[in-house]
């Protein structure tokens, strides 16, 4: 059967669900009832969520967890995290507590500049285009005044606009490369609005630029869009302590521990196959806070990985050294985040999460997010270089296995008891349940 349909978006929510149920399920009623089960009983709240996107049929839950005890620059934070992977929040909380007793996280925002570009084709003499750009530059600012007025009041705005010649890489390709300060907003709408106005100004002014030939006047704007590669919107998070202070129950020999740990980071510096997984571990923490605070995790992901390969090879975003008996572990990452605008004032749980974080500025949020990323990376490397990750991971995952087998409360107690001293795996838990169910 063909599943093509025209006018899907014009169907009501219930009609959409019914259409899907009929098309894809042998028991349509069951599918309909499952989808509806996830509707919020508060109609207003449901409507709010429905209107976030097009063609909403229901909600898709992810857990919201809490990692307490993050000491960042001497301030204590309780961090909300949205993630489905079972061990991530526990690992973040464990690292946070570990480092809170060893001086906490030290973070600094290195810069907060955002970037946007108007990509265009100009067929003509470069020197004339340069003259045109220099003459027109003030107009780019003037004609975006209605857009930039409020941002300027908040201390932000357009920082600079330059003309880039890209013709060596693509015939007749030039760009307006603009930099922005967007204060507490992520700035995507602001930047894109400015860029689209730059593009209009560019085309319009070219028409009346006397020394342009007819062909030169015909600038073709290909597109105007912000860049998610925010190379000058960087935050750094660091932990450090004398090696012997790393000692605790599970780290009996701190020197041995730390040397292996540093080697693990060095491997991620030179081996891309490892670096990607290493950075994925960092992003476990970063994305979870980015999501919880209503920010765009795809933008953060894209920028972070591009930054990891900025020197031509994909490398670890974190670094570790031992110098004069001091272990130092740090992370540098581009993070374009907002604490106003977008979802931050719309999604009730995002608002709640920002309150838990005591309404941070975007700069403060950058630092919290980076600290969580570093904590997550510390937890992963600590497990990987000691007992391996499966023990902790499976301990957290055991509930998922029990749920899958619809284990009763009594069975859960027996499983918990048995697996105190036995290795947890999907097969071993399933096998044990089968055994006790005989
Ligand atoms: C799993 O989600 C993340 C890790 O693979 C990260 C790492 O290997 O560093 C544990």
TrEMBL record:
Class of enzymatic activity (EC top level): oxidoreductase
Catalytic activities: (R)-mevalonate + 2 NAD(+) + CoA = (3S)-3-hydroxy-3-methylglutaryl-CoA + 2 NADH + 2 H(+)
Pfam families: HMG-CoA_red (PF00368)
PANTHER family (alphabetical): 3-HYDROXY-3-METHYLGLUTARYL-COENZYME A REDUCTASE
Organism: Flavobacterium orientale
GO BP term, pick one: coenzyme A metabolic process
UniProt key word Phosphoprotein: no
Protein name (Swiss-Prot/TrEMBL): 3-hydroxy-3-methylglutaryl coenzyme A reductase
Functional pathway: Metabolic intermediate metabolism; (R)-mevalonate degradation; (S)-3-hydroxy-3-methylglutaryl-CoA from (R)-mevalonate: step 1/1
């Amino acid at each position: 059967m063909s599943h093509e349909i025209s006018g899907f978006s014009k169907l009501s929510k219930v009609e959409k669900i019914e259409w899907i149920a009929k098309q894809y399920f042998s028991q349509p009623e069951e599918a309909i009832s499952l989808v509806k089960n996830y509707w919020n009983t508060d109609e207003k709240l449901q409507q709010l969520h429905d209107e976030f996107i097009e063609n909403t049929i229901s909600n898709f839950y992810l857990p919201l967890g809490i990692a307490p005890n993050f000491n960042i620059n001497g301030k204590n934070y309780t961090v909300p995290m949205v993630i489905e992977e079972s061990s991530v929040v526990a690992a973040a909380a464990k690292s946070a507590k570990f480092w809170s007793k060893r001086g906490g996280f030290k973070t600094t925002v290195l810069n907060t500049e955002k970037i946007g570009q108007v990509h265009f084709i100009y067929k003509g003499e470069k020197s004339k285009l340069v003259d045109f750009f220099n003459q027109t530059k003030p107009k780019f600012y003037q004609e975006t005044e209605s857009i930039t007025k409020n941002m300027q009041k908040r201390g932000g705005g357009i920082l600079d606009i330059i003309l880039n010649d890209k013709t060596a890489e693509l015939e007749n390709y030039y760009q307006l490369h603009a930099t922005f300060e967007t204060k507490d907003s992520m700035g995507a709408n602001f930047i894109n609005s400015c860029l689209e106005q730059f593009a209009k100004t560019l085309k319009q002014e070219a028409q009346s630029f006397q020394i342009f030939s007819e062909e030169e006047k015909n600038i073709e704007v290909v597109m105007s869009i912000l860049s998610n590669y925010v190379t000058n919107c960087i935050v750094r998070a660091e932990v450090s302590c004398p090696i012997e202070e790393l000692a605790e129950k599970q780290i009996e020999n701190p020197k041995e521990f730390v040397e292996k740990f540093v080697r693990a980071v060095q491997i991620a510096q030179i081996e891309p196959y490892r670096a990607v997984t290493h950075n994925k571990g960092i992003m476990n923490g970063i994305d979870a806070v980015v999501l919880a605070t209503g920010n765009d995790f795809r933008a953060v992901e894209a920028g972070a990985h591009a930054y990891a390969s900025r020197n031509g090879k994909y490398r670890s975003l974190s670094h570790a050294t031992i110098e004069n008996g001091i272990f130092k572990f740090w992370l540098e990452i581009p993070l374009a985040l907002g604490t106003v605008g977008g979802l931050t004032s719309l999604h009730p749980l995002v608002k709640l999460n920002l309150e838990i974080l005591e309404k941070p500025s975007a700069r403060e949020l950058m630092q919290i997010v980076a600290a969580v990323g570093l904590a997550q990376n510390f937890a992963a490397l600590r497990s990987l270089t000691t007992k391996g990750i499966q023990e902790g991971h499976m301990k957290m995952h055991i509930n998922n296995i029990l749920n899958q087998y619809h284990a009763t409360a009594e069975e859960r107690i027996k499983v918990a008891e048995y697996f105190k001293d036995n290795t947890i795996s999907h097969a071993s838990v399933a096998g044990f349940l089968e055994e006790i169910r005989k």
